[in-house]
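During the no-cost extension, the postdoctoral fellow (Dr. R.K.) reprocessed legacy sequence entries with the updated structure-token encoder. One reprocessed record is reproduced below for audit purposes.
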Amino acid sequence: MHLAKDDVQVKMQIPGAVLRLQPDFGDATGLGKISGEYFSLAAGVDTTPLFQGLHGNACQCPHWGFVLRGRITTTDGQGQQETVQANDLFYWPPGHNVKVDEDCDIVMFSPQHEHIHVIDHMIGKVQS
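Re-encoded structure tokens follow.
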């Protein structure tokens, strides 16, 4: 699921302020502590080989985020692809791989325990 900024419903607008809100944008029930993350990724980065060995050979951690610049395409376990780009809010459910189409910067919020597990797995792949 992703939304361009202008597609997020305006809930309040007053001089100098516009408040947009998208309800039901993912579910964080029971996920414990959340980490805030800022990723800078170069075009061509592909997580597919880094996620080999994880369940489904994919990231099993959900992420909520915002694309500051660039473009990224995710692929889920059924082969469905979705592309997010600058000014999109996104939710990536568990079971995804990521390919960076254009240099990008993203801000994400993720369940801390699950995402550290994925990142540690990627570090192990790079070191081996």
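Residues 42 and 103 are 4 Å apart (CA to CA). Residues 2-23+33-127 form a domain with the Jelly Rolls fold (CATH 2.60.120.10). The remaining legacy entries will be reprocessed before the final report is submitted.
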